[in-house]
Amino acid sequence: MSRLRRLSRTVERTLRKRGVVGTVVYAGTSIADRVRGRTSRPDAGSTEAIDKDAVDDEEFDKKYGVDTGGQIAQTDLDVSEKTWIHGSAYVPTSPVDFTKVLDGLGIEFEQTTFIDLGSGKGRVLLMAAALPWKRVVGVEFSPSLADVSRKNIERYTGPRKCAAMSVETNDATKYELPEGPLVVFMYHPFDDTIMKRVEEHISRAARASSRRILVVYFKPVFREIWDRANAFEKRREETLYVIYDSRKG
Questions:
Q1: Which helix (H) or strand (E) covers residue 241, if one does?
Q2: Phi/psi class of residue 33: alpha, beta or left (left: φ > 0; alpha: ψ in -120 to 50)?
Q3: Domain of 28?
Q4: What would the pLDDT profile of 155-210 be if each residue is shown by its tens digit?
Q5: Are residues 8 and 109 in the same domain?
Q6: Where are the alpha helices (DSSP H) in the chain?
Q7: CA-CA distance, 218 to 238, in Å (whole number)?
Q8: In 3D, which of 129, 134, 125 has the Cα closest to residue 93?
Q9: pLDDT digits (tens, 9 = 90+) for 24-57
Q10: In a domain, 52, yes or no
Q11: How far apart are CA 180 and CA 115, in angstroms?
Q12: pLDDT tens digits, residue range 55-98?
């Protein structure tokens, strides 16, 4: 993407989310932060953390013959829908042992579908496939990232106990949840505007039937939305994630 195109999308996003006055204030604050030698990115980590993530990316991709590493700015993603401003940049999830994360939750894997909302290049899908799910499904708004993830599924040489894997290019708020028990994974994929719509969408599905739905929310920036969701209750909380379980009855 050209610098002009990137700048245009950045300005569009800021204006639509903050308005003219808010954009001016934000720009002034960002410039002041840079003058003071501080980053203006709220999610930016230390140099050591960034270096470690880069090493994890390289090791995972090299070990399993895939391309899941790197970071892609939100403004560089090929999403034309107006709701693109509510998405997050592509940042691959660090290696996760889902056996440990989901331990003790009583999941019947062979009957349960695992869904990653905002699946990016598909690393979470690949890691999840080490468990014997009924299906593993990625939902990704960016067509190019969805294409990369499909290729990664074909090339992946790591442990795989789930053969039914797919990726849908779709809006998380419009994706029709499949029947049966679900585990819905998210790694800070969008802002609070979309997260609220997604919560309402999943809550409706939970109330409409007796099936069980677990929400596994990593980097839970907007966890208060799920904390207040009447259809769910918090089941587990760790430093990196929170798990919510649909209420019975």
A1: strand 241-246
A2: alpha
A3: 1-40
A4: 999 999 999 999 999 999 999 999 999 999 999 998 999 999 999 999 999 999 99
A5: no
A6: 3-35, 47-64, 98-101, 123-128, 143-155, 192-208, 223-227
A7: 9
A8: 125
A9: 443 454 444 444 444 433 443 333 433 445 557 7
A10: no
A11: 12
A12: 577 899 999 999 999 887 766 676 665 665 566 677 888 888 99
Three-state secondary structure call for residue 227: helix
Q: Is residue 71 part of a domain?
A: no
Same domain, 125 and 238: yes
Tokens found for residue 36: 């003071």
Give the CA diameter of the chain. 56
Q: Which residues contact 221 (CB under 8 A, 6 or more apart)?
A: 188
Phi, psi of 118 (to 5 degrees): 85, 55
Question: What contacts 224, CB < 8 A, 6 or more positions away?
Answer: none
- Are the C-beta atoms of residues 143 and 167 closer than 8 Å to each other? no
Question: How many domains does the chain divide into?
Answer: 2
Q: Provide the pLDDT for residue 124.
A: 97
For position 190, which CATH number holds? 3.40.50.150
Report which residue type is found at 128.
Answer: A
CB 24 within 8 A of CB 11: no
Both 23 and 107 in one domain: the answer is: no
Q: Evaluate whether 248 touches 235 at the Cβ level (below 8 Å).
A: no
Strand pairing class (113-117; 135-140): parallel
What pTM, to 2 d.p., does this model score?
0.78
